[in-house]
Amino acid sequence: MSTARSSTRLPTLRQVVARGHLRLILFSVALASASITVSGIFIVHDYIQRNLQLVAHTIGYTIEPALVFGDKDALDRGIASVVGHQDVARVEIVGANGTLLNVWTQSDENLESPAELIADRVLWPAPLVDPVERNGQRLAVVRVYGSSATILTYGSMGLMVGLCCLGLTILATRILARRLEREIISPMEHVAQVAHAVRFDRDFGRRVAQSGIYEVDRFASDFNALLVELQGWHESVVSENKELAHRAAHDSLTGAGNRDLFEKTLNDAATIATASDGTFALLFIDVDQFKQVNDDFGHNEGDCVLAETARRLGRCVRSSDQVFRLGGDEFALIVSPLPDSGWVETLRNEIEAAMLRPIELECGEEIAVSLSIGSAIYPLDGPDVKAILRRADAGMYGRKRLKRIGMAQTGEST
């Protein structure tokens, strides 16, 4: 019970393959998206870095006259005209003596978010510096701080594209999983069904169909070959078991049932008759003067007489009746079910008529064989098995005794 419960908790092959397939594709897509996004960020960062350097140099060139004449308004206009829509967060103009001459930042409408401020510090921890000189004399230094707005926008777009790709990947994985189920999982399930049928139903005629996949078909061919061998082995074992069971329950000389089978069949017949208020008949049969046959012709010829007697008895009974050899020259018949009480006398007459024809021995001689038959009907002649056994046995020996008396009287009169 515990094994069955644990097996139900195990994942199926379909689930394992689909799960592995999904993980592999998700990992591949996530790795590709991350690689493209990160490499794109580095490329954009390098591009902005170069652009900021150019902006710093351009600002220095633009504000040089304003620095010479000390025109602060011209200085503001010069910086604004250059930075415009560039990726610039802050511009500082520092004089040659270290005095901060001018500061430009993003306008109030375009203030950077906290995420952008953090990204600015990470991506541009130090400003890009460009000196402003005139005739070899340094007038000021331009410091340009980059803005991460473009990079964050690119990263957000990359994240959205990655999520879309993951969604499409999950959808594609479902489609591929169904195709995988149809092409691989279904053949494997078919193999499992065949193996289950062979194991539990002993259906050794089942075979695994070809799937069109090389590895699966090779496995199916080997599996079918194994089933062929297993089927042959099973048929051989069944045949041997039947043969052994038949030998254990039948007489090797005559092929009739032996004493063990007789006792079992007799008890079964009594049980069935009791349950159905039916009847059956028991006949005890003994070959007359059988010892004389052995003495005159030998045991091999005696065996020939016993075998032929069993064959003739078998031809006289119905398919539902059975013939038994109890030992030596004693036979028994169980007639079940019994049509009527007169059937026993009819059967006795048929047996005696069948034995009128002489038996041909292997030596070429022919001898006439007679039988002494005693019978009993259950439950008319006894309430149980022991009672009808005694009645049939007594009837057989009574007939044998009458025959001996008759032969003795015939001999005396002669």
UniProtKB/TrEMBL annotation:
A single cellular component GO annotation: membrane
One Pfam family in the UniProt entry: CHASE8
SUPFAM superfamilies for the chain: Nucleotide cyclase
EC nos: 2.7.7.65
Residue ranges constituting the HAMP domain according to the UniProt record: 182-235
Transmembrane segments: 21-44, 151-172
Top EC group: transferase
GO MF annotation, one: diguanylate cyclase activity
Keyword set, alphabetical order: Membrane, Nucleotidyltransferase, Transferase, Transmembrane, Transmembrane helix
One GO-annotated biological process of the protein: signal transduction
Keyword rRNA-binding: no
Start and end residues of each GGDEF domain: 278-414
UniProt-listed PANTHER family: DIGUANYLATE CYCLASE DGCT-RELATED (PTHR46663), GGDEF DOMAIN-CONTAINING PROTEIN (PTHR46663:SF2)
UniProt-recorded name of the protein: Diguanylate cyclase
Organism: Candidatus Andeanibacterium colombiense
Lineage of the organism: Bacteria, Pseudomonadati, Pseudomonadota, Alphaproteobacteria, Sphingomonadales
